[in-house]
């Protein structure tokens, strides 16, 4: 098996550093990708710090991968050498269950994640903080020419994580949508909800990013640090998407929903989020969760973004600054997604 350069964690407590990792030999249905850019997702931090359970070490994270096809297996029909492609949070699934057959591979109970999962050959998958990856062709996405590869990388997780619930809960003209948090996920939610035609409100802790929120497409912007906000906006929304990866007062946000409204959690804090029954019952409200999208929906999202000129707002960094970037993500000191230049991994 060939080896490639990567940045990986060797424990849940230490920094990431340069290592070499193995990639499988190219199979008949495999695509080899020369990685050019990889986004840094909050999930990467949760995972390598053991907050979502133990992982085998060393582990190279990264599931917002954008690059160019450098080789294809003999039976590959969907991609060719030179294609601009991406890989998101999944690199395979069972292909047989009802969810897989419906294009909802993200809900396959035997899905194989891009890093930290047991692959079909028994090895542990390694992510995009590396120079190359080999992925079965069915889980490789086409990146349209209208999006630069660096701005496209975060779409493979942050973009689809917001696009999927916006589409599922029918965000569009006449719908009042609130995005909680204006970070890596939230800024994509504002852009996508606006492009879908919804009336968009940002609910952020303070007003310090208001000019950014409005530039991205928000019609309204409110500070959740002001208790009056929750009184002023009571029963104002059809859909609220919470992107915050920390504990919030779910019941307070449920109070902002109109009849039949839904609060969707896409942020994944490690602690429980208590919900009072009477925050739901009197207005037939719903509290839901959503993951990424399946492969068909992810391709749909990429095509939608190209059509509407949407990419992530990014700060491109060399690999040697990954650990610094992790700390800045935790301090909300990025506008709005770090992207690693894979040419600096060596």
Automatic annotation (TrEMBL):
Residues 11-340 form the Enoyl reductase (ER) domain. Keywords: Metal-binding, Oxidoreductase, Zinc. Pfam families: ADH_N, ADH_zinc_N. SUPFAM superfamilies: GroES-like (SSF50129), NAD(P)-binding Rossmann-fold domains (SSF51735). Its EC number is 1.1.1.2. CDD domains: CAD1. It catalyses: a primary alcohol + NADP(+) = an aldehyde + NADPH + H(+). GO terms for molecular function: alcohol dehydrogenase (NADP+) activity; zinc ion binding. Its cofactor is Zn(2+). Belongs to the zinc-containing alcohol dehydrogenase family. This is alcohol dehydrogenase (NADP(+)). It comes from Actinospica acidithermotolerans.
């Amino acid at each position: 098996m060939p080896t490639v350069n990567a940045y990986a964690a060797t424990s849940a407590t230490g920094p990431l550093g340069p290592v070499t990792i193995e990639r499988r030999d190219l199979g008949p249905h495999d695509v080899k990708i020369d990685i050019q850019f990889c986004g840094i997702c909050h999930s990467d931090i949760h995972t390598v710090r053991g907050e979502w359970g133990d992982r085998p070490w060393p582990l190279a994270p990264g599931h917002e991968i954008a690059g160019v096809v450098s080789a294809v297996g003999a039976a590959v029909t969907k991609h060719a050498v030179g294609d601009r492609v991406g890989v998101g949070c999944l690199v395979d699934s069972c292909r047989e269950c009802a969810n897989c057959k419906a294009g909802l591979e993200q809900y396959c109970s035997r899905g194989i994640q891009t890093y930290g999962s047991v692959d079909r050959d028994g090895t542990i998958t390694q992510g995009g903080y590396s120079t190359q990856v080999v992925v079965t062709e069915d889980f490789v996405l086409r990146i349209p020419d209208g999006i630069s590869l660096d701005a496209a990388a975060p779409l493979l997780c942050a973009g689809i994580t917001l696009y999927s619930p916006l589409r599922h809960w029918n965000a569009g003209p006449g719908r009042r949508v609130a995005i909680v948090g204006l970070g890596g996920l939230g800024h994509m939610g504002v852009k996508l909800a606006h492009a879908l035609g919804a009336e968009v409100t940002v609910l952020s802790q303070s007003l310090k990013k208001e000019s950014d929120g409005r530039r991205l497409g928000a019609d309204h912007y409110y500070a959740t640090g002001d208790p009056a906000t929750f009184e002023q906006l009571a029963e104002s929304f059809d859909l609220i998407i919470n992107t915050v990866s920390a504990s919030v007062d779910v019941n307070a946000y449920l109070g902002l929903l109109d009849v039949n409204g839904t609060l969707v959690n896409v942020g994944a804090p490690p602690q429980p989020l208590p919900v009072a029954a009477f925050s739901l019952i009197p207005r037939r409200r719903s509290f839901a969760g959503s993951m990424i999208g399946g492969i068909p929906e992810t391709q749909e999202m990429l095509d939608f973004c190209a059509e509407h000129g949407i990419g992530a707002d990014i700060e491109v960094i060399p690999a040697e600054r990954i650990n610094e970037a992790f700390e800045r993500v935790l301090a909300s000191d990025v506008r709005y997604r770090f992207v690693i230049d894979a040419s600096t991994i060596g």
